[in-house]
Design brief:
four-stranded antiparallel beta sheet; elongated; alpha+beta
């Protein structure tokens, strides 16, 4: 995903040769050195490559012909050659290195012809770099070390001068070639020291043109040197002079502006070729109306004279421009220096108010709208301007003559940490050698960072917090803290305060404040000994009050309190919470809803979130634990929480990422990365509607992850990677740190460079295509929009909303939505947006199902006029409308739906139509299973249906129709994989139907191959106890070499211990050959059902086959099935946190009270408590969000009053627990994007009892009314005493009821003895 970005490639060196720009291969290249790095840019926001050296570099030069680059270090020169023809693959690699022995001073370099490199130091040397290693072809020792040395563009002359030297030496080459190279020289004298030189650029290097040299001296005069005699073009003489100080005269208000008087002058030479191209660009840029303006006509007149332009600036922002006409003897015309313009405001002030003036060196080239200017200010910044010449050289007052495209700045050393303000509007970057900088970001969508201040403490900074939008910074050192005023370019130390605390400081926290507007801040530091100290900071209301001395207010720091925290000794880390999605203030109360400020992590992986408040009288702090999450991840290496209760955790190997919801203490996401991908940073942000975004930092890339809607039907992930930022192509340095700013931009610090990436998207990458974002009709060009689409509320016609409505039993509402959607699609137009609610009133979604059904019936039968309806506006959903709607869905791309979602929607329409057709015979649970079955059929990869689907079918009263539909789907050829996939043998309740279906599967397995192998169906027929049928099948398998022996073996009596032992031996032998299914069949032959079930469960890893064999062989009341459910299924359900499997198992065990309780209560508390067996360790999957399915509340509401046992289960659930379960389910609906269903749930839920009558039993005994509760029908299913056998699970078996007599066949007169 390509994103707009802003670069801060590093702080440029304050040297003459620190910046260089050329046009090579029709590409503009800007290079500058910063610290140990060389930055190569193609544009203001496009970094081509960063090259790091092992030493600091001071200068750079680029060869316009070969594209080679030379960088200068102390005693060394590095030569880089370009590799790769295409722009994307273009890189520079080290070709050779030139060592300058015996001298550690930085050198100056310049490229000549034929890849010759001039190196200036205490001597001038010429090196040929055509081959590696370079060859020295000429050298000359000098009395004064070279400060500047440059080739002319035709490489025939060299101009050199030393530092503080008033003589410029012109070296003339006497020979051509690399053999016996000779130079002679002459002097160009100046009255003061020379500070800069510039050779005039020709239109092309092939052009024969006079070499013209511009020199600038400390006397403030620009001198132009050119050849005088046509027969000796190498002899330069003074041609013209421009007094720079007099070129900008003082204005009439000179006395009033003495405070800003500046004697410094900055000169920019615009060569004639650059000026001509810039004028041509300006001509192409102006409109027809602007061509007649006087300003434009004046520019055309100046351009006709083909001048060289000299632009002079002063420190007050004023400017003047001068033209030099006919420079050089070949023109043979009179030289003319004429004034082009003078302006009081250039709009290009390189020195801000209050800053010390610094030297500025200019580089100009044509591009953009006309002229591009690089102003290298020697305070560590490069200003990049774009100017249209008719506006830039306009003599009339203009507020803006040039547009500032960007400022290239940054650090000189590797960036280590980034810290932001609470609101993300400013940040602090800390680099190597205690180099700190404060950056601020302008309002709106402008992502450019501007350097606000630099901080240079004398002692090492361990931690820092940034206050008041970056106006103040507090740094933590060994034994003291310092408060800095960062409103000035160089921060000023305001106050230093000593402290004493035991242990090493681990964390520095800025506490959220309870009142807005007051500049009162509180900072807390925590040490490794769990000791803490808090400081209070008082700041002025406005930073100007400090600068101007208003009210004599001075910021102060005072120690507020010291404290000790009662935490575990095995604590690993204390981390501040990323403040996302909130303002800078909070309420003054202290409770579990307060915003979290810190997260602690111990060695066992226990996460604890903390909030803290300062007491009203500032006498101390009050800490409160808001949440606890036991992750089970030992010794995590990284953790980061945010203020909307999300915590990211990285394991000890830094290869696995988990994301947790601390409010619900559940796992939302888990991903394992390759071993080479080491996670080293985590950063949080959120959208304006509080949807979390996580940046996962690796050494050379950052992966952005966002929340996805919970998807329980498809078991989809709750998080996904949607964007990747890879910096390896532009810098080899690993990423140091990253953070988010308030407007959604991401700042990455790598080496000494800062990369600021906007949230705006230019094109989708592979990750976005995997999420199928490219299939959306509406373009998503903002990551906030992408996240809102992936995780925001869904329209009512979205498949997820319709699926959940069907599960909630809202079939009438679903039909209403589909009827409205059909109507809207028939009149659909691309320019008219589709309403998310389809113009259905909100009250309709919140109404009860029976009320909706009544309203629809009255609407359809509302009298003579009410029954009249137009043919095209049918109010009833039927098969005809369903076919029409499916046809529209295949033709019209619906907004906010991806292609797969639209296919899913069509499947739901067909499913609803099918249920509608069988409405009188399919109940709600059958419809729920049918929906899951149809959705499962759309999956590409084979997988079993969920236990949720089996639970719906298990409680359905229309299982005959469901089994017919499943068989029809298999085309009457159902085999065991299809049976396992549909979960048939888990949800079928009728014993006869189970045997019949299992026999069908046995027959289909036998006939599935051409040979008709009896081995394929042996397990099935032996489970059905139909050994004779199997013998008959073997009798027909004459082709099988095992026929005779197997047929003879099966003919024996296996009730005899001898043959039973033989069958067991054969089973074990088959297990040794890994023929597990056949081995299970021989165990059944030996009447060892338990062993057969264990083989299916353990060896074949087929839980459903084990259940099916047990149910078929001995029925639902057999001891093996009970043992399987109790000892294997229930522990597995606890281990995986699967409540659907647990409630089914309890129901099969005749413990329906536990089947109800396990839907709400923790599974471990129901199955492990009170047993002697060791508890099974809970897998991390058991903590996954998928364990808390919102459909559980639907099943709970359905079965809680179904039988007497379920009512007893409800009695043990407190109203508070039920309320928490309800609110948690509502939050799950919200995370699914189904906000309306969450509102409907909490609005229409009915509690069986309230907290006031919690002590009253739901089941009351009356001799007259045996068991009665309201008017509901409750089945009496208390187990008889004979069922009170111990299962090993508390409550299973020993029911506490009286004796219940079995039903009698004839009527008996009731006894009246009790009345006497």
């Amino acid at each position: 995903m390509a994103l707009r970005s802003v670069l801060l490639p590093g702080k440029p060196q304050s040297n003459i040769q620190a910046v260089c720009t050329v046009e090579w291969g029709r590409k503009r290249i800007i290079a500058y050195v910063s610290g140990c790095a060389l930055a190569l840019l193609g544009d203001v926001d496009r970094l081509m490559q960063t090259i790091y050296h092992d030493v600091e570099v001071f200068g750079v030069a680029i060869d316009e012909i070969s594209g080679k680059i030379a960088t200068v270090a102390k005693g060394r020169v590095f030569v880089y050659a370009p590799v790769g023809a295409e722009e994307r693959s273009l890189k520079w690699v080290l070709q050779s290195q030139i060592d300058i022995r015996g001298n550690a001073r930085p050198s100056t370099v310049s490229w000549g012809g034929e890849e010759e490199l001039l190196v200036g130091n205490t001597s001038l040397a010429l090196w040929s770099t055509q081959h590696a290693p370079p060859k020295k072809i000429w050298g000359k020792s000098l009395a004064n070390p070279v400060y500047i040395g440059e080739f002319s563009y035709d490489a025939s002359l060299i101009a050199s001068t030393g530092e503080s030297d008033r003589l410029v030496k012109i070296w003339r080459r006497l020979s051509i070639g690399t053999e016996d190279v000779q130079f002679d020289f002459s002097y160009l004298p100046h009255p003061r020291a020379v500070t800069g030189i510039h050779w005039r650029r020709p239109f092309s290097r092939e052009q024969s043109v006079d070499n013209v040299l511009y020199t600038i001296a400390a006397d403030g005069v620009l001198r132009v040197w050119a050849p005088v005699y046509p027969h000796d073009l190498h002899l330069l003489q003074l041609w013209a002079v421009i007094d720079l100080r007099e070129s900008i005269p003082d204005s009439l208000g000179y006395e009033k502006t003495m405070a800003r008087r500046s004697d410094n002058r900055y000169v920019m030479i615009v060569d004639g070729c650059v000026f001509t191209h810039a004028v041509e660009s300006a001509v192409c840029s102006v409109t027809e109306g602007e061509r007649g303006h006087e300003v434009f006509q004046r520019l055309v007149e100046v351009a006709k004279r083909s001048p060289e332009i000299c632009v002079v600036f002063d420190g007050r922002g004023r400017m003047s421009a001068w033209g030099l006409e006919n420079v050089g003897c070949r023109t043979r015309k009179t030289t003319n220096v004429f004034s082009v313009m003078h302006a009081e405001n250039s709009g290009m002030e390189f020195v801000a108010k209050g800053e010390q003036e610094a030297f500025v060196r200019f580089h100009s080239f044509s591009g953009g709208a006309g002229l591009m200017v690089l102003a290298h200010v020697f305070d560590g910044r490069i200003f990049w301007y774009e100017a249209r010449l008719d506006r830039f050289l306009d003599p009339s007052p203009r507020p803006r003559r040039a547009s500032l495209l960007g400022v290239l700045a940054g650090h000189s050393g590797p960036i280590e940490t980034l810290v932001r303000t609470a609101d993300g509007k400013a940040m602090l970057s800390s680099a190597h050698k205690n180099e700190l900088m404060v950056w601020s970001q302008s309002k709106g969508d402008n992502i450019a960072l501007s350097k606000q201040s630099s901080i240079s403490p004398t002692n090492r900074v361990h931690r820092a917090v940034i206050l008041d939008n970056g106006n103040y910074v507090m740094t933590l050192h060994d034994g003291h803290v310092v408060l800095w005023d960062s409103t000035q370019p160089v921060a000023k130390e305001l106050e230093q305060l000593d402290f004493k605390v035991a242990g090493k400081m681990l964390c520095l926290l800025l506490l959220p404040e309870a009142q807005d507007g007051l500049k009162q801040y509180h900072v807390v530091a925590l040490s490794s000994e769990m000791k803490g100290i808090a400081w209070g900071i008082a700041l002025p209301q406005k930073p100007s009050e400090l600068t101007n001395g208003i009210n004599d207010f001075r910021p102060t720091v005072h120690e507020l309190a010291t404290f000790a925290l009662d935490m575990k000794e095995d604590l690993l880390m204390i981390l501040p919470v990323d403040p996302v999605g909130w303002n800078a203030t909070i309420s003054g109360t202290l409770d579990t809803f307060s915003r979290e400020v810190a997260v602690t992590v111990d060695k066992s992986g226990l996460l604890q979130s903390w909030t803290v408040k300062v007491s009203p009288d500032e006498s101390g702090l009050r800490w409160l634990e808001t949440s606890t999450v036991d992750t089970g991840i030992e010794s995590p290496s990284l953790a980061k929480g945010n203020s909307i209760r999300k915590i990211a955790l990285v394991n000890s190997g830094r290869s696995e990422l988990t994301i947790w919801d601390s409010r619900a203490a559940q796992l939302e996401y888990q991903q394992h990365f390759e071993s080479q991908d080491v996670i080293q940073d985590l950063d949080w942000t959120s959208t304006p509607d509080s949807q979390s975004i996580l940046a996962v930092g690796f050494p050379h890339r950052v992966l952005l992850m966002c929340q996805l809607r919970y998807d329980y039907l498809n078991a989809g992930p709750a998080w996904a990677s949607f964007r990747q930022i890879n910096v390896q192509d532009i810098t080899p340095h690993p990423i140091g740190d990253s953070l988010w700013l308030s407007n959604g931009s991401l700042v990455i610090g790598a080496g000494n460079q800062l990369f600021v990436y906007s949230r705006k998207v230019e094109e989708l990458d592979d990750l976005s295509k995997q999420l199928r974002l490219s299939s959306l009709k509406a373009r998503l060009d903002d990551i906030f929009e992408i996240v809102s689409h992936l995780n925001g509320p869904v329209p009512v016609y979205h498949p997820q909303f319709l699926q959940q409505c069907i599960l909630a039993g809202k079939s009438v509402l679903v039909e209403e939505i589909l009827v409205r959607l059909h109507k809207e699609l028939r009149n659909f137009h691309e320019e008219i947006p589709l309403d998310n609610f389809l113009e259905i009133p909100v009250d309709t979604f919140l109404a009860r199902e029976e009320d909706l059904s009544t309203a629809r019936t009255s609407k359809l039968t509302g009298g003579f006029f009410g029954s009249y309806q137009e043919e095209e506006e049918s109010l009833c959903f039927d098969e005809t409308l369903a076919k029409s709607l499916c046809g529209l869905l295949t033709k019209i791309p619906i907004p906010h739906l991806m292609g797969t979602e639209q296919i899913n929607l069509a499947s739901i329409v067909e499913c609803v139509a099918q249920v509608k057709e069988h409405r009188r015979s399919i109940d709600e649970n059958g419809a729920r299973y049918l929906l899951s079955f149809r959705q499962h059929g759309l999956r590409r990869e084979p997988a079993d249906m969920s236990y949720r689907s089996a639970a719906w079918a298990f409680h359905s009263t229309s299982q005959e129709i469901l089994i017919d539909l499943v068989n029809n789907n298999a085309k009457g050829k159902m085999m065991w994989p299809q049976a396992r996939e549909s979960g048939v043998f888990m949800w079928l309740r009728d014993s006869e139907a189970i045997h019949k279906q299992f026999e069908i599967i046995a027959r289909n397995h036998y006939t599935s191959t051409f040979e008709k192998n009896p081995i394929d169906c042996s397990l099935h027929y032996l489970a059905l106890k139909k050994k004779n049928v199997l013998i008959g099948l073997w009798r027909m398998a004459s082709w099988n070499r095992e026929q005779v022996s197997t047929q003879r073996f099966l003919a024996n009596n296996f009730s005899d211990p001898r043959w039973k032992t033989a069958a067991m031996k054969n089973a074990y032998a088959l297990m040794g050959r890994h023929r597990f299914e056949y081995a299970a069949a021989f165990f059944l032959l030996a009447d060892s059902l338990k062993d057969a079930v264990n083989v299916c469960f353990d060896r074949m890893n087929d839980i459903q086959l084990a259940i099916a064999v047990a149910r078929v062989y001995e029925g639902d009341d057999g001891p093996v099935l009970r043992g399987l459910l109790q000892d294997r299924i229930l522990p597995l359900a606890v281990e995986k946190g699967n409540r659907w499997l647990a409630t089914w198992a309890f129901w099969m065990l005749r413990r329906k009270d536990m089947a109800v309780r396990c839907l709400l209560s923790p599974l471990r508390s129901l199955t492990i408590q009170g047993t002697d067996s060791p508890s099974t360790p809970t897998r991390i999957e058991a903590r996954l969000f998928l364990a808390d399915d919102p459909a559980l509340v639907i099943l709970y509401r359905q079965i809680r009053e179904k039988t007497l046992q379920t009512l007893r289960g409800v009695e043990k659930i407190s109203p508070e627990a039920e309320s928490l379960f309800l609110l948690h389910t509502a939050r799950l609906y919200d995370r699914m994007g189904c906000d309306l269903l969450a509102l409907d749930l909490v609005r229409n839920w009915e509690f069986l009892r309230t907290s006031k009558d919690a002590h009253k039993p739901l089941i009351q005994f009356s001799p007259r009314h045996h068991f009665r509760r309201r008017s509901s029908i409750t089945v009496v299913d208390e187990p008889p005493p004979m069922a009170s056998m111990k299962f090993g699970i508390p409550g299973i078996g020993g029911g506490a009821g009286g004796t219940v007599k079995p039903p009698v066949a004839v009527f008996q007169e009731p006894s009246m003895d009790w009345a006497f």
